[in-house]
User: Fold this.
Amino acid sequence: MVYGSLIRIPGDAFFKKTEQKDSDIPQFVSDVKQYMNRLKPVQIAHKVKQTPFVYKDLSMSTHTFVRIDMIKKLLEPPCEGPYKVVERIPNFFGLKMKDQLKNISIDRLKPAYLLKEDIKLPEDTPVSPPPQDKQPEDKNPRTSRLGQVIRFPTRLVEVVQ
Assistant:
């Protein structure tokens, strides 16, 4: 609508302006009904069904977390687990949950990245302790004015001495 222009009623937009008489009103009503009956709904574009997000590492993971699909209380974790993967079916994974095999959809799964210490090995497998990096102790430790010992990185020890 533009300031200063005339306001049009919807009938003016559809039909030509002609002078109408009281005898033309039934004809006008029937024309409007016919016009409205010819109108068809506009075709809508159907949305494409989105595929669920699946982690790339899920196909190779030995353990997974399972997303909890319910309303959670405050500070409640969003996932349960980790659970061991027993079998892989295209859209489902068989997980060992509480001594039972349950099939869970892959869109609820998240791969678990476990450390070697966290994975339980059979008892007959020897486990070696992780290597520890030991820094050679300095025979003449340098101290600050406040008496704190200053430790330089090993790559800089030769430069400082």
